[in-house]
């Protein structure tokens, strides 16, 4: 019995847990009773290697965009200032040739001539020249207008045809103005209607005058050397008919050739005409 008592250990009073000790102190000391459940801290400190929540959202968005880009091919879209499409896809079937405008073909032929030439870059262009003085520049224009009730004012030529203006005396509200023209010395003729443009009020005792505009389409294949376009103005009002045919000679334009020289460094600039 004495040996048993000597071998038994006595626990110091300082190591016995006190009822008022906190759980944190018992965890630090490691002297919690074996009957108590294992306690873990409620708040855990975040590891420094983990990104913050905004950073995780940013990285996830970048990954989604990269995955979307890898899953589709890159595309280029052309749009104007309003966001409308500038391109149009046209699929041509076998044997279906695209329609190319005549003015594009003519410019391409000129460009090929310039490319093949090794000397002077010179070519000729065809244009229509008036065989009369512009009526509005004549001193007797007002007198002719009062006498004929209709008079051609001015005409200009372009690659597509002739455009001009006609003045008529305002005899009545209902009126019709037209231009009759021909390419083959009146063997056949054509007529286009002029459209009202503006009115000139009365001044210096003259009646009110109406101004009409017209356009004569001229096909490019008819523009041959020395070919002539003739026309006259026609005015119908109150059941009457008045003409301005340049004193019986008719107004005419003649096709002429115009030589044009161009420096070689500008030969590629013809692409801008297409």
UniProtKB/TrEMBL annotation:
<dbReference type="InterPro" id="IPR038175">
    <property type="entry name" value="CBM21_dom_sf"/>
</dbReference>
<feature type="region of interest" description="Disordered">
    <location>
        <begin position="1"/>
        <end position="34"/>
    </location>
</feature>
<dbReference type="GO" id="GO:2001069">
    <property type="term" value="F:glycogen binding"/>
</dbReference>
<feature type="compositionally biased region" description="Low complexity">
    <location>
        <begin position="7"/>
        <end position="18"/>
    </location>
</feature>
<dbReference type="GO" id="GO:0005979">
    <property type="term" value="P:regulation of glycogen biosynthetic process"/>
</dbReference>
<dbReference type="InterPro" id="IPR050782">
    <property type="entry name" value="PP1_regulatory_subunit_3"/>
</dbReference>
<feature type="domain" description="CBM21">
    <location>
        <begin position="142"/>
        <end position="254"/>
    </location>
</feature>
<dbReference type="Pfam" id="PF03370">
    <property type="entry name" value="CBM_21"/>
</dbReference>
<dbReference type="GO" id="GO:0008157">
    <property type="term" value="F:protein phosphatase 1 binding"/>
</dbReference>
<protein>
    <submittedName>
        <fullName>PPR3D phosphatase</fullName>
    </submittedName>
</protein>
<dbReference type="GO" id="GO:0000164">
    <property type="term" value="C:protein phosphatase type 1 complex"/>
</dbReference>
<dbReference type="InterPro" id="IPR005036">
    <property type="entry name" value="CBM21_dom"/>
</dbReference>
